[in-house]
Amino acid sequence: MKKYIQVIEKCSLFSGISREEILEMSGCLKITVVKVAKNQTIIAEGDPVKYMGVVLSGSVRVIREDYYGNRTIVAEMGPAELFAETAAAAGAVKMPVSVTASQDSEIMLMDCRKAIYSCCNGCIFHNRLIANLLQAVAEKNMLLNQKMEIISKRTTREKLMAYLLYEAKKKNSGEFVIPYSRQELADYLGVDRSAMSAEIARMRKDGLIESKKSRFKLLEHL
Amino acid sequence: MKKYIQVIEKCSLFSGISREEILEMSGCLKITVVKVAKNQTIIAEGDPVKYMGVVLSGSVRVIREDYYGNRTIVAEMGPAELFAETAAAAGAVKMPVSVTASQDSEIMLMDCRKAIYSCCNGCIFHNRLIANLLQAVAEKNMLLNQKMEIISKRTTREKLMAYLLYEAKKKNSGEFVIPYSRQELADYLGVDRSAMSAEIARMRKDGLIESKKSRFKLLEHL
DNA sequence: TAAAGTATGTTGTAAATCCAACAAAACGGA
DNA sequence: TCCGTTTTGTTGGATTTACAACATACTTTA
Q1: Which positions of chain A have pLDDT values less than 70?
Q2: Does any domain span residue A147?
Q3: Can you tell me the distance from the alpha carbon of B103 to that of B110, in angstroms, rounded to the nearest whole number?
Q4: Structure confidence by residue, pLDDT tens digits, A159-169
Q5: Do A24 and A115 fall into the same domain?
Q6: Is A133 part of the contact surface with chain B (CB cutoff 8 Å)?
Q7: Are residues A112 and A197 in the same domain?
Q8: Which residue of A has its CA nearest to B125?
Q9: What per-residue confidence (pLDDT) applies to A122?
Q10: What does the pLDDT average to over B100-105?
């Protein structure tokens, strides 16, 4: 496990915990390292929730399957990224998704019960681990909330305005640069790119905003 | 505080912790009870994140304000419900929302740093508290993920199918009863009710589903 | 700098959605 | 049962969006 410590310490789960402390905890967390071949399944949907994982090398895909068996990729994670932590933290019984290797990979698995419930071994940094996990899940939650609020709007214009108002608020200024390309923004808002471009042009014409590429300026409204 | 213990113990944050233990923890969590009048602000947006709250009586509203100052109600919580826990758990510096009383209310506030980071007082049940918090946030996360996947679909039909497939999977059967009225379902999916009703009729005609009121049956597809 | 590639803007048409208004059905007391 | 209320289904017209196709602008690199 020592050879992977450089990757492991980058994982948000272990932030604020030193290499030595991580190694000390490894027994307590029942950490195992497994090598998986491309396309091999690491955790299958419906499996009991036993493990939380960290990608050490390679990459994994989180996959969801619907009633008819159609598969969709939910996420792809690379080195130092954590997976299956939400199901583990929610105390779910069965995994709602599968995790498979998208390349030959090395994966660190840990016992999620051990990780979530404080052990009695006087393992001081365990508390920090749980706090890190809580923070990771809560941050994801805030991002989801924010996105949900935006894409719940019915029209493209409303979605755009909700997004731009959010950015303006974050930057505390009516003038700001957004971190997305047009295509990325369209994907984020769940709309068609060209239709969105057209809507931006209309909003400009209607005097709602000024914009040039990724620079936007909100104008007064009544 | 004792007089509120019946409400407090119902709060998910304290599940698995006895009344006596809650009372023991109260000093550690710096719990205070405040009475607030209707429309009074309990936590203002931009305030430093110091408190997590539980409604003891009455009700509170979580309010978000956009760049222009337009207010929208994000949520309304009643007795035994927790608020401001996500910002606290995410380690946010400033509150992203305001919380105000929608009636004359009694509110329990606790120091969120104390709640989230294990104290050194050998307070055994503190760990349980953190585990409860983690679980609450993670469960919310899973619900949001699920909803996000559904409302990210572009068309009404796709949204409906995504939702119905999800229900079918949960019930492990192609035939099931949904827990929403038409209006509720439309709100959940973020579409117009009447348009949705029409779409359901079309899906029935196209041989995708059978349905009668809230009972649905998925048919074979190619 | 030229050329190729990528990102963005524009437009017309077909399709989907919203909205409003109303019809039909289901429901809940009196 | 009858009546009023609520929910659900249906329809047509106005609006909005997606999609495709293409024009323009910007980047990269040979």
Answers
A1: 119-122, 221-222
A2: no
A3: 21
A4: 999 999 999 99
A5: yes
A6: yes
A7: no
A8: A118
A9: 65
A10: 94
Residues linked to residue A34 through DSSP beta bridges, in sequence order? A107
- Looking at residue A68, its pLDDT comes to 80
Secondary structure (3-state) at B57: strand
> Which helix (H) or strand (E) is A56 found in, with range?
strand A51-57
Q: CA–CA separation, A65 vs A73, rounded Å?
A: 9
Q: Do B161 and B101 share a structural domain?
A: no
> How many angstroms is C1' of C13 away from CA of B155?
19
Boundary residue ending a domain (B140, B164, B184): B140
B2 touches chain A (CB under 8 A): no
Q: Which domain holds residue A115?
A: 2-140
Find, in chain B, the residue whose alpha carbon is nearest to that of A145.
Answer: B144
Test B67 with A138 for CB contact under 8 angstroms.
no
3-state secondary structure B162-179: HHHHHHHHHHCCCEEECC
User: Predicted confidence band at B68 (pLDDT cuts at 50, 70, 90)?
Assistant: confident
Kindly report the bases of strand D lying within 7 A of a protein C-beta atom.
Answer: 7-12, 16-21
Overall number of domains in chain A: 2
CA of A212: nearest nucleotide by C1' is C8
Is residue B55 one of the residues assigned to a domain? yes
Report pLDDT for A59.
93
- CA B156 to C1' C12, in angstroms, rounded, equals 24
Closest nucleotide to B157: CA versus each C1': C16
Domain of residue B165, CATH code: 1.10.10.10
Using the Cβ of A73 and the Cβ atoms of chain B, whether some distance falls under 8 Å is answered with no
pLDDT of amino acid A70: 79
How far apart CA B3 and CA B9 sit, in angstroms, is 12
Asked if strand D comes closer than 7 Å to B151 Cβ, the answer is no
Whether residue B161 sits in one domain with residue B51: no
Asked, for residue B54, whether it belongs to a domain, the answer is yes
Q: What one-character-per-residue DSSP string does A13-39 give?
A: GGTT--HHHHHHHHHHTT-EEEEE-TT
pLDDT of residue A119: 67
**Protein chain A, residues 159-188, with a C-beta closer than 7 Å to any atom of nucleic acid strand C:** 181-183
Same domain, B8 and B57: yes
A3 to chain B, closest Cα gap in Å: 31
B165/B191 same-domain check: yes
